[in-house]
């Protein structure tokens, strides 16, 4: 029997928690194992229940979603737990800090039910997911801020092709889109992504996006 994906919902609005619960519990292969109305409870339940995915609202009382995400993602006993951060606004200033804290993805609360369910599935496999508008917002925030101009020692050892793949990941392209853009097979793309995760010691695709921007590679674009 295939195990069901276990989901913890953390949101300070009971109505939204209820809506997410109905969606998850009505999806084959998924179940809600707990609900939290604040960050402290979210961390406690994550440790007690070890869910596969935490749907994490970033604006919560007592302990905000960023701090809660950081506690969960830095806890070695919760290495298998993935956080999918949720917000109402694609311009939310919490986007970048949440990803830095270890969130594996970021989606808007008004995403379609199908997109949210797919996001949970993708996160659970160890991949990362970013809503396209969120990726564009990240690009816009870094452009002109001058933050991505520091030396990039973490990129030493990457091949030219791996750098190309990393730039495309940072711009929100899927493996299929990367395959088409670079004219390489899907297995080759997956090999490059796996190599990047290993060499850069990133836990998932979302962390690769952060590294690409912090190193300045995303700003410089495709290597020549």
TrEMBL record:
The segment(s) forming the Response regulatory domain are 6-124
List, for all copies, the residue spans of the domain called HTH luxR-type. Answer: 151-216
Listed A to Z, the keywords are: DNA-binding, Phosphoprotein, Transcription, Transcription regulation
Q: Is Transcription tagged as a keyword?
A: yes
Q: Name one GO biological process term.
A: regulation of DNA-templated transcription
Which Gene3D superfamilies does this UniProt record tie to the protein? 3.40.50.2300
Protein name per the record: DNA-binding response regulator
Q: GO MF terms on file?
A: DNA binding
Which residues are recorded as modified (4-aspartylphosphate)?
Answer: 57
Origin superkingdom: Bacteria
